[in-house]
């Protein structure tokens, strides 16, 4: 299972997404159309190190030393998030549209894979090390959650530019049609597992809710829910090319089909194990009532099915781009993702232009999935490189978490982005 997840994530790294090259980098204001293909992936936590995540995804074994080292870095409340986005965008600027000038039309295809979870220290230790360490005590599971959502969308939009020679403003709106492929949402409001000091019995109690899309339909490419999302874009540009951008993306929902499940349970379970008087003389099927699948089905599946609505994780982002001179620029950005454990992310991006074809940017960020309210206050550092090949071809590549590759034991975030754009003049 872990290998299949790792292979799936690696495969997505070679597909396009939405890293987006800003039009203010190079002077292509008079273009008639553009097409862009992108990828953006991010894995971040407020506690799980990059080294431990790498061992979990790509190794068949996590040794005791790495487990104990990871346990020491956990907080009372922990979170992890992953986003892999891919897509392609086409924008055209006709001379007139419906009798109006300065109108642009765009079409986007996006695909999203989102994982978001919160968990206690006890739940993490229970999952990776069993319940032996909890003999005589209860492992707390309160306020733990998991949300996995996989969907794609077609977005159709319109944008308009207006202003004068001193100020240029752009406003755009896009409507997306969502196809949902998978959703699993589990939230444990209150819960604990008590292990007897002599390991003679377990007591489990939990108050939790489960939303699950239809699992009976085979095939990863069969969509099981539909919905829509709203996207808003606004840009304000001065004569000296200082730019303020504001956008709201993917504000919407997916309604999962009638074969899905949504239920809540308040459950208590007392388990005393299995009595085997003579291990050399076992008669009958003593494990008939201890089948793991039957236990999972009993407590995480419902006998009834019906549709439910799940909001899509949407994002609000604002940025300001300031020109010091032709060589030195800086961009300040703040963004917040909703319906996920994503704190406001603050980004400072100083930029240096050695010539008209290249841009080198340092990226300093704080927040996001790494958190701003936790016990660690990690400032991540990355780098971005943009190159103009000429004839309207521009490439962007970089990572917000370069330190995550250099110091995997002490950092808790990694990711990369890539974009290739063509302007048609």
Describe the protein in words:
There is one protein chain. The chain has 425 residues and is mainly beta. It has one domain (2-424): Porin. The chain has 6 helices and 18 strands. The chain has an 18-stranded antiparallel β-sheet that branches. Strand 5 and strand 6 (167-195) form a beta hairpin. The longest helix is centred in the N-terminal third of the chain and has 11 residues, at 2-12.
List keywords for this structure.
Porin, 425 residues, single chain, mainly beta, 6 helices, 18-stranded antiparallel β-sheet, 18 strands
CATH level-3 fold name = Porin
Structural class: mainly beta
Mean pLDDT equals 85
Task: Give the number of DSSP strands.
Answer: 18
The number of distinct structural domains comes to: 1
Question: What is the terminal separation in angstroms?
Answer: 48 Å
Query: What share of the residues does DSSP label as strand, in percent?
Result: over 45%
CATH top level is Mainly Beta
Which regions have little confidence, pLDDT < 50, spanning 5+ residues?
Answer: 1-23
Order of helices and strands: HEHHEEHEEEEEEEHEEEEEEEHE
Separate helix tally: 6
Sum up the overall morphology in one term: globular
Helix content: 10-25%
Offer a quick outline of the entry.
This protein is 12% helix and 53% strand. By secondary structure, the chain is mostly beta strands.
């Amino acid at each position: 299972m872990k290998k299949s997840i790792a292979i799936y994530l690696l495969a997505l790294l070679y597909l396009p997404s939405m890293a987006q090259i800003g039009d203010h980098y190079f002077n292509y204001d008079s273009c008639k159309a553009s097409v862009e293909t992108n990828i953006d992936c991010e894995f971040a936590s407020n506690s799980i190190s990059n080294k431990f995540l790498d061992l979990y995804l790509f190794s068949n074994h996590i040794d005791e030393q790495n487990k104990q080292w990871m346990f020491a870095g956990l907080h009372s409340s922990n979170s992890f998030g992953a986003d892999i986005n891919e897509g392609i965008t086409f924008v055209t600027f006709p001379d007139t549209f419906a009798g109006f000038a300065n109108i642009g039309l765009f079409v986007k295809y996006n695909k999203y894979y989102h994982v978001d979870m919160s968990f206690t220290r006890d739940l993490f230790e229970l999952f990776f090390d069993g319940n032996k360490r909890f003999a005589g005590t209860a492992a707390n599971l309160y306020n733990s959650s998991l949300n996995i959502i996989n969907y794609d969308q077609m977005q159709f939009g319109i944008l308009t530019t207006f202003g004068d020679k001193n100020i240029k403003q752009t406003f755009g709106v896009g409507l997306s049609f969502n196809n949902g492929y998978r959703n699993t949402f589990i939230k444990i409001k209150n819960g604990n597992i008590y292990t007897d000091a002599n390991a003679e019995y377990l007591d489990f109690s939990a108050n939790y809710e489960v939303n699950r899309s239809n699992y009976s339909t085979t095939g990863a490419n069969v969509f099981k829910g539909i919905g829509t999302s709203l996207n808003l874009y606004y840009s304000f540009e001065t004569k000296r090319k200082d730019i303020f951008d504001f956008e709201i993306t993917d504000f919407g929902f997916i309604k999962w089909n009638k074969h899905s499940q949504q239920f809540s349970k308040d459950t208590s379970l007392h388990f005393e194990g299995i009595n085997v008087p003579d291990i050399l003389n076992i008669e009958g099927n003593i494990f008939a009532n201890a089948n793991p699948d039957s236990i999972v089905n009993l407590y995480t599946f419902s006998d009834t099915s019906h549709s439910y609505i799940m909001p899509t994780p949407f994002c609000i982002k604002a940025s300001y781009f300031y020109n010091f001179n032709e060589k030195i620029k800086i961009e300040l950005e703040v963004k917040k993702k909703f319906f996920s454990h994503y704190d406001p992310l603050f980004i400072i991006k100083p930029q240096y232009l050695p010539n008209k074809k290249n841009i080198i940017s340092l990226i300093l960020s704080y927040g996001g999935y790494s958190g701003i309210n936790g016990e660690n206050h990690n400032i991540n550092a990355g780098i971005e490189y943009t190159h103009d090949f000429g004839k309207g071809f521009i490439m962007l590549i970089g990572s917000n978490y370069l330190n995550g590759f250099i110091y995997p034991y002490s950092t808790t975030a990694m990711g990369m982005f890539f974009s290739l754009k063509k302007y048609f003049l």
